[in-house]
Design brief:
- The protein has 17 helices and 14 strands.
- By secondary structure, the chain is of the alpha+beta class.
- Strands 1, 4, 5, 6, 7, 8, 9, 10, 11, 12, 13 and 14 form a 12-stranded mixed β-sheet that branches.
- Helix 6 packs parallel to helix 10 and helix 10 (about 170-195) packs antiparallel against helix 11 (about 200-220).
Amino acid sequence: MAKDISADQLKKFQEELDAKANHNVAERAVTKNGILATSADYRSEINMDPVFSIDLDTGKVANQKQSGRCWMFAALNTMRHDMKNKFGVADDFELSQNYTFFWDKLEKSNYFYENVIKTASLPTSDRKVAWLMQTPQQDGGQWDMFMAIIDKYGVVPKSVMPETFSSSASREFNSALNLKLRKDAVELRELVNASASEDELEARKQKMLSEVYRMCAYSFGEPPAKFDFEYRDKDKNYHVDRDLTPQEFFKKYVGWNTEDYVSVINAPTEDKPYNHMYTIEMLGNVVGGREVRHLNVDMDTFRKIAIKQLEAGESVWFGSDVGQSSDRKKGIMDTELYHNDELFDVDFSMSKAERLDYCESLMTHAMVLTGVNLVDGKPNKWKVENSWGDQVGTKGFFVMSDNWMEEYCYQVVVNKKFLSEELQKILKEEPKVLAPWDPMGSLAK
């Protein structure tokens, strides 16, 4: 039987509050300054001094502005870091985030339509259908989803397809596109349940996709089929390469075998034993393209492979819960940054697994590791390239404590050559399929 809060209990609560030493001091401080400012620890800023024993020169930071494209920015940043080393492009050179955004929106729409068709026999109250309709598409994504776009469409320099209003501030476009996708879902479900033929369904879906393409073209501009690439290198020498396709540009100037780069996660929950592969149902963007696959490892292995790649001079894409114990303006992510537990005299402690299982934390943002500080061979802080412009942190770069990485980092992407032979063999394992709403299926924004 449910019980309400009684008057006697309220009296006891107040008596317990009054018995707390200096509770009036804490009350005045919090009511005036808020929780974070009152519980902030200045020693964290001292410990997070942005000096690192391994520090890659990666150029200037980018700015995703009012969009959820961090996963794209972070991935394209790792690519331009390579281009800077190989070809000497300028520090402020960028690959077009708008180009990949265009194709991701179109492909996500098709992926949504296909999932609507697959689940059309289920009632709208079914959890899978409800999950699909809650957010038909959004800006966020994961590494394998980005590679699926690259494999199909290549990349272009930002100068060839620059930012537009809607790529830099995507809320209006997302609202319009999700409205269309939900409306189209009504029609597709009706067609399936009316026993429409496969040809009829495909013809209607193609008409819908043509309309999505038009919306994307109006909002982001038309993606180039061919273009000229002009740049000056670090020695001011002029270079020009004419009549390139986006795929040719990627092959020549980035040159990655995208299959070499794999997602490694740390998810210490009971349903995901370490040293196994996982995927997520209904998570993706390109139908028939690269599948989202995660190799789950313990945190010590997670750190070591990231350090190996940094030591080899390669930056590392990673995903984390950036809003936890972080100061955006100062560019600090540290578990010792705030002491809310001491301020309120309340135990807030949860394990990493508990935070995942009870919806307290999940991957929300992708950034790039560009350095690490090693003390006696062990890391105590990491250098992070963000995509929030150069007005935050140290010219856009953040400092992350190793303890923060332990608690709030969930994914790194590394070249599989940095994995042990045993882990490389596990990559070939058939992945366990997780539910669409599993926290490892969260999209970085």
